[in-house]
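Narrative of accomplishments. A recurring question from our advisory board has been how the design workflow behaves on a single, concrete structure rather than in aggregate. To address it, we present the structure tokens for one chain from the evaluation set, followed by the sequence designed for it. No filtering or post-editing was applied between the two.
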């Protein structure tokens, strides 16, 4: 077959004759009508004087053209397919439960491994067919038992292929060519979008780039042999490229992070520049798509860099998308106009509504961020038209393309351009391939410039695209649903967006619509608890605040800090020296070390202060915690910066620790108010039975270093809220952060003696605190060995002791994630990376074992190992760092001992060669960064100039206590690295034949803290609920990052005593219950009570 599609073009009809162009979407005989003079906005004699009337007339013309194109009132004109498929989609739009299950099944389908597994998924998703419309219900309920499983699989496969094939043009450009030729015959251009898996490693990024380059190497040569098609090749400014690609930044650099804005910008620009130069060489058009909001600014920064590149500055065939549903899109458009003016060469802006609304609103709700998108569709439509007016005002430097299936929006674009004096056909209409085909045919028949967004890729990643498209367009307010399914009348479809005056004003000024900034204090002390929002590092002001805080902390290092006993500082002449684990030569501070005398004084102060604090009203104690939370909120970036320097936490990890500390203060303050109200237990006449809680006494709080603010803040605030006094021993590795916490609490008003700061050596101070008879309660978080020692010592009753000591112990974990055979590997790999290697695996909740079912074991490893190798290891002050140092030289040496043992027990697959620094660390052996963060730092993926040679032990930077990620495979269940807590970036990968074995392996350790399952089988998920007995079980998400109030945290067996921090029963560990019974009968008379 020739590459010239014009040889297959049918004869044209004369414009204005009313002849139909055919009815079959894929028929070679359908004919499309074009007007030689371009689109006629309205009959010449009947043009209304105002813009709104013109929009209506233009829209009605399009609507009439759709009717002439046929099949415009059925689901088939919205998305192609057979009758049964249309029945499924029709039910999805009326039955929310079925819609959810259908789209989830579509998502999991490519990962189903065999016919039997397919049948099991069908039954699990659709309740043995009960949710399905006929005849699907009978097929699943009885057909799966009467028909061979292969027959059911064949029928399902055929239906899924048809559904996906209507939206995805092929696996690659070669397969897509027939579709592209057919589009040209129908006077429709294309822009190709490469579908694929999430880019999790630099190896995957390189593969994406190779595919993009391959398209530019092959497609332009084929397109050059196509006959000219003026309807799509010619624009008012000249000839348009026949080859048009849409690129996603997320596909070309796996470590892109808005927190590392400049580093990511350099890496992305460097990756894309050769591609853009090649596009210029072959005469292709390139768009940059805009995806999630957090990457929006980065996308425009990269686009700007490429547009102003001296070798690209005068190339006019570059474009970028703008999402109208983002509240602050107007400044974006104005910035693009300024860019075009600065460049002096036109750019194209593709205005779309936005395709990630569900994701953006869910993320905003989870993070308690102001939603970046409009929550009412009419507001998006209103802004779409405003942005159109702004864009056409910048013509010809800004060329306008609109991506919409909305009749009103399309008509508004055409009329707005005409009213601004733009030439006919100046606006390009872009539609999604396979959707609203009658609208595409109608637009092309009217002589408009029309282009389809055509996805190309494999079925598995294609299903994610398919689900997103179906989810987007089955929404209640979807223009496709309203037009093609509910068949709304044209007047309602063409009505202006119904936006209230206040909403319109908010659209004009997005800042007015934004919610309160993250970190705003609750309206009242007893307002419902809400988690403190994490910092949004996609915002430049947030990044700047963190950078300034780091500079402030760096300038304050090296100070001395005393004990704080009874509210007064004390010096001892002995010190704990705290150093930066990324730069051990850098002293963070010297903190006085307590001895036996100071410990005795602190306990005496706590005993003295107890009666008054006990008798302080719970509401007053809570108010102090709320004030402390407010102070912490004000200083969140300084505290986070201190965590970066003293604890070696990367930016996000440090920020999350601060927000969790705030959460504990807010949550426990509310909890003690709730628990302080006595409860009446009975309604028996003549008797009052009350149940209430009182504090225990003096609490010794012994904190760890890995969450150096959150965990001590949680334990201290719980004890204080409950009315106990506290002697707080911080971890020896992070005493400066402990001092900062206590000073902040004192500033909030906690009285002297109620909270005492007692740093010192554990073997001395800790031992004395646990054994002292004045201590009533011990709150400890740390290792199993230390926890067992505390439990044993606390069980001994010392002379003079007046209470049995309560021990609240949160210990370690040997946590496993199970990856089911149908798991979403994009999510599973990313979840394991986050759980195992973020903060160098130094979390009791971290994943140290991953158990993968046999069918996907090799496939999982193929993606996991390069993803881990791509992580940047370095100074956490550098925002590109994902894996920082471990806390100390002792910790590093201990981890290396486990690694050496692992080499004897299993196969090490990462790092590949530990005895050499890789020349290109980003692609094969892990990205390694030094500790320089000033100007001149290496771009992501490069080794900084002058970086010290890596130590032979682990290949990480020499300046600091670094251990880069290590992965062992085929690990025997009984191996030491599979049984003992390592507390470092070491991951044991094990294989399981089935889920039975996976659960046995996961639970075959002494711990039961956290666990995870990645699965898309509802039956297997329900089974995990019952059988995967750990303290915190996570399904299809990382197993770290528990949030106060949402995921109360704590384990059982050897992981702790079963208490749950951040939960409704945690404060009960710090309280003693009392029952009070009063006989209210006096000489046969009892007070009247209402029943």
């Amino acid at each position: 077959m020739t590459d010239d599609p014009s040889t297959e073009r049918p004869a044209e009809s004369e414009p204005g004759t009313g002849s139909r162009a055919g009815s079959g979407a894929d028929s070679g005989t359908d004919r499309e009508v074009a007007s030689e003079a371009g689109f006629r906005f309205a009959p010449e004699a009947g043009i209304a004087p105002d813009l709104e009337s013109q929009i209506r007339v233009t829209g009605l013309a399009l609507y009439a053209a759709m009717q002439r194109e046929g099949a415009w009132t059925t689901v088939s004109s919205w998305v192609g397919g057979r009758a049964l498929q249309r029945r499924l989609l029709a039910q999805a739009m009326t039955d929310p439960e079925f819609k959810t299950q259908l789209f989830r099944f579509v998502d999991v389908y490519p990962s189903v491994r065999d016919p039997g597994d397919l049948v099991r998924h069908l039954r699990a998703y659709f309740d043995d067919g009960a949710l399905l419309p006929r005849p699907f219900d009978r097929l699943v309920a009885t057909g799966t038992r009467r028909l061979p499983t292969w027959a059911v699989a064949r029928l399902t496969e055929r239906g899924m292929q048809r559904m996906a094939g209507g939206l995805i043009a092929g696996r690659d450009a070669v397969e897509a060519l027939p579709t592209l030729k057919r589009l040209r015959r129908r006077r429709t251009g294309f822009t190709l979008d490469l579908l694929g898996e999430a880019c999790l490693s630099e190896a995957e990024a390189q593969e994406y780039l190779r595919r993009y380059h391959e398209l530019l190497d092959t497609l332009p040569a084929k397109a050059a042999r196509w006959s000219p098609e003026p309807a799509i090749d010619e624009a008012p400014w000249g000839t348009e490229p026949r080859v048009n690609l849409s690129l996603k930044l997320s596909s070309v650099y796996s470590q892109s992070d808005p927190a590392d804005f400049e580093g990511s910008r350099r890496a992305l620009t460097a990756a894309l520049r050769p591609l853009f130069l090649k596009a210029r060489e072959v005469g292709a058009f390139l768009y940059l798509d805009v995806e999630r909001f957090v990457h929006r600014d980065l996308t425009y920064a990269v686009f700007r860099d490429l547009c102003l590149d001296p070798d690209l500055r005068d190339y006019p065939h570059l474009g970028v998308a703008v999402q109208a549903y983002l509240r602050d899109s107007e400044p974006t458009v104005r910035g693009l106009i300024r860019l075009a003016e600065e460049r002096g060469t036109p750019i194209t802006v593709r205005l779309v509504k936005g395709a990630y609304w569900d994701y953006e609103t869910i993320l905003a709700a989870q993070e308690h961020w102001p939603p970046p998108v409009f929550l009412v569709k009419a507001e998006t439509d209103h802004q779409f038209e405003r942005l159109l007016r702004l864009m056409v005002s910048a013509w010809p430097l800004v060329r306008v393309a609109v991506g919409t299936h909305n009749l009103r929006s399309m008509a508004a674009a055409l009329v707005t351009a005409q009213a601004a004096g733009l030439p006919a056909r100046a606006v390009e209409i872009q539609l999604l391939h396979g959707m609203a085909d009658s609208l595409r045919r109608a637009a092309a028949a009217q002589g408009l410039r029309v282009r389809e967004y055509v996805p190309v890729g494999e079925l598995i990643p294609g299903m994610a695209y398919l689900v997103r498209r179906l989810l987007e367009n089955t929404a209640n307010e979807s223009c496709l649903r309203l037009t093609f399914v509910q068949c709304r009348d044209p007047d309602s479809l063409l009505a202006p967006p119904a936006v209230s005056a206040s909403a319109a004003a908010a659209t004009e000024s997005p800042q007015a619509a934004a919610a309160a900034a993250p970190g705003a204090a609750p309206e009242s002390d007893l307002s419902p608890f809400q988690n403190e929002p994490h910092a949004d590092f996609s915002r430049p002001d947030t990044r700047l605040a963190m950078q300034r805080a780091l500079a402030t902390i760096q300038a304050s290092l090296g100070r001395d800090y005393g004990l704080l006993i009874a509210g007064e500082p004390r010096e001892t002449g002995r010190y704990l020296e705290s150093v930066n684990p990324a730069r051990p030569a850098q002293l963070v501070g010297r903190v006085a070390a307590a001895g036996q005398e100071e410990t005795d004084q602190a306990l005496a102060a706590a005993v003295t202060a107890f009666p008054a604090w006990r008798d302080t009203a719970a509401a007053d104690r809570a108010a102090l915690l709320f004030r402390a939370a407010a102070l912490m909120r004000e200083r969140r970036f300084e505290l986070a910066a201190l965590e970066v320097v003293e604890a070696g936490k990367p930016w996000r990890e440090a920020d999350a620790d601060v927000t969790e500390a705030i959460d504990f203060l807010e949550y426990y303050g509310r909890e003690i108010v709730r628990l302080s109200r006595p409860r009446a237990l009975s309604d028996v006449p003549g008797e009052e039975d009350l149940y209430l809680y009182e504090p225990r006494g003096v609490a010794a709080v012994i904190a760890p270093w890995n969450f150096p603010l959150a965990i001590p803040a949680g334990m201290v605030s719980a004890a204080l809220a409950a009315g106990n006094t506290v002697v707080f021993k911080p971890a020896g590795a992070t005493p400066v952060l402990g001092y900062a916490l206590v000073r902040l609490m004192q500033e909030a008003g906690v009285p002297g003696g109620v909270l005492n700061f007692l740093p010192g050596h554990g073997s001395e101070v800790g031992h004395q605190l646990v054994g002292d008879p004045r201590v009533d309660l011990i709150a400890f978080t740390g290792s199993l060995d230390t926890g067992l020692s505390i439990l044993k010592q606390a069980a001994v009753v010392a002379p003079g002791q007046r209470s049995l000591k309560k021990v609240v112990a949160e210990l370690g974990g040997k946590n496993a994630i199970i990856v089911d055979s149908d798991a979403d590997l994009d999510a599973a790999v990313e979840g394991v990376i986050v759980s195992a290697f973020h903060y160098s695996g130094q979390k009791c909740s971290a994943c140290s074992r991953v158990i993968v079912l046999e069918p996907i074991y090799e496939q999982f490893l193929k993606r996991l190992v390069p993803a881990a190798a791509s992580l940047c290891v370095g100074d956490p002050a550098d925002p590109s760092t994902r894996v920082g140092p471990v806390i100390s030289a002792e910790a590093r040496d201990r981890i290396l001992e486990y690694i050496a043992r692992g080499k004897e027990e299993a196969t090490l697959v990462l790092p590949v060669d530990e005895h050499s620094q890789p020349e290109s660390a980003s692609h094969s052996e892990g990205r390694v960064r030094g500790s320089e963060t000033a100007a001149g730092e290496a771009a992501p993926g490069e080794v900084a100039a002058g970086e010290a040679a890596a130590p032979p032990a682990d290949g990480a930077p020499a300046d600091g206590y670094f251990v880069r990620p290590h992965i062992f495979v085929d690990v025997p269940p009984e191996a030491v690295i599979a049984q003992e807590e390592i507390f470092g970036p070491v991951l044991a990968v094990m294989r399981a034949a089935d889920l039975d074995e996976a659960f046995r392996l996961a639970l075959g350790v002494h711990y039961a803290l956290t666990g995870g399952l990645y699965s898309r089988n509802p039956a297997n998920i329900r089974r995990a609920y019952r059988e995967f007995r750990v303290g915190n079980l996570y399904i299809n998400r990382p197993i770290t990052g528990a949030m106060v109030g949402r995921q109360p945290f704590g384990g059982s067996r050897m992981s702790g005593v079963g208490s749950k921090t951040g939960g409704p029963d945690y404060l009960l560990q710090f309280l003693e219950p009392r029952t009070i019974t009063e006989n209210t009968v006096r000489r046969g008379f009892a007070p009247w009570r209402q029943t």
